[in-house]
Design goal:
Structural class: alpha/beta
Largest sheet: 7 strands, parallel
Strand content: 15-25%
Shape: globular
CATH topology of one domain: Rossmann fold
CATH architecture of one domain: 3-Layer(aba) Sandwich
Strand order of the largest sheet: 3-2-1-4-5-7-11
Radius of gyration: 20 Å
Number of strands: 13
Order of helices and strands: HEHEHEHEHHEHEHEEHEEHEHEHEHH
Bound molecules: 2-amino-3-ketobutyric acid
Helix content: 40-55%
Oligomer: single chain
Distance between the termini: 59 Å
């Protein structure tokens, strides 16, 4: 059967892996608007009902199981993939080889599927990939402080398995976008900005703060954990020093930026990887704001030296000029605005509704 005929018989779809996670939670809601292809969502565990009903189909699937992914996607013409499935930095240090399996082999599976579908339909499949500030690595706090705001290609010497995984997958995505099977007779090369079989795009997420969900397994979790604990009236012991400083943004800003990159004409993109962030507070500055809004909050600081060293290896702030110039990235909030306009109103409402 002609490939094009085969293609016409399949349902166009947007495929999301790791859909039940924090980013997936916000992305599904943002994507499930009108005039969008059906959402096909997968995760290792069932999605909560509110997310499931926004998807055309949801499946339990492991991104490391290529056969399962092939069977699952055989019914769809995949137009876009948001590959969110990952083992984050802290959890990855407890099981580094498992993290490599999920973070790298899982991503290879997704890129291969995208390449095969891109060849089948004669148009590149868009793969949107969340990398991380974990892709950076500083050898000392002095080096981190001296570097200030870093661009995408400086100081990329990660000290965590998660950071190594994310940096390698950035390079893999560039390969699939521009050099895939470059010596094969039938290869479809990506020229400067078009064609090829995979249209790979990547944002490096900073720490993310959501009013709706609490992260698990990350090393930047101290900020959302601190805020949610205060909103629940629980004491919080912060695992990093008060002066610890890394870039953050709110989850809505991260989702908006991700979709803005996804929607950008490929011809306007001068890079594969883009930094995004909104503010770079210290843990102490966040604690002061939390106490301003939750005066009864009890926050103490007991640094965990090993998790502290991970945070100290990450940049204090990011240079987001490339994202601003290429596809119009712009932060929505300062830290203070984020608390006043989004975090405190939504988190208060959320915990009032459950109390
Ligand atoms: C983590 O802490 O591992 C993640 C990240 C910064 O990518 N939230």
């Amino acid at each position: 059967m002609e490939q094009s005929t085969l293609g016409e018989r399949r349902q166009p779809a947007v495929f999301i892996t790791g859909a039940g996670g924090e980013v997936g939670h916000g992305l599904i809601t943002a994507l499930s608007g009108d005039h969008r292809p059906d959402i096909v969502a997968t995760d290792l565990r069932d999605l909560e009902h509110g997310l499931r009903k926004q998807c055309a189909s949801t499946y339990l699937a492991d991104v490391c199981d290529r056969d399962a992914l092939d069977r699952l996607l055989a019914m769809y013409q995949v137009k876009e993939i948001y590959h969110l499935a990952a083992v984050l930095s802290t959890r990855a240090e407890l099981a580094p080889e498992v993290a490599h399996q999920v973070n790298v082999n899982g991503t290879v599976n997704i890129l291969q599927i995208a390449a095969e579908q891109g060849r089948m339909y004669g148009e590149p499949v868009k793969v949107v990939f969340p990398s991380s500030i974990a892709a950076y690595g500083f050898g000392s706090l002095a080096q981190k402080t001296e570097a200030g705001a870093v661009s995408e290609y400086e100081h990329c010497k990660p000290s965590t398995m998660y950071g190594c995984n994310k940096l390698y997958c950035e390079h893999l995505g560039r390969y699939y976008a521009h050099s895939y099977r470059q010596l094969a007779q039938d290869s479809v090369q990506g020229d400067d900005k078009n064609r090829g079989v995979v249209d790979f795009r990547c944002v490096r997420y900073p720490g993310l703060i959501s009013a709706e969900t609490i992260p698990t397994g990350g090393t930047s979790d101290f900020v959302p954990e601190m805020l949610h604990a205060a909103a629940r009236g629980e004491a919080y012991t912060c695992f990093v020093r008060e002066d610890s400083r890394i870039p953050f943004m709110t989850m809505p800003e991260a989702i908006d930026a991700t979709l803005k990159l996804a929607a950008a004409p490929r011809s306007t993109l001068t890079q594969i990887v883009y930094n995004i962030a909104s503010f770079s507070p210290s843990a102490g500055e966040v604690a002061a704001l939390v106490k301003h809004y939750f005066p009864n909050a009890v926050i103490s600081f007991e640094p965990d030296e090993r998790r502290q060293s991970i945070v100290d290896s990450w940049p204090a702030s990011l240079d987001c000029t490339a994202a601003e110039n290429d596809w119009g990235f712009a932060p929505t909030h300062t830290l203070e605005q984020a608390f006043e306009e989004y975090l405190v109103p939504r988190i208060t409402k959320q915990y009032e509704s459950v109390s």
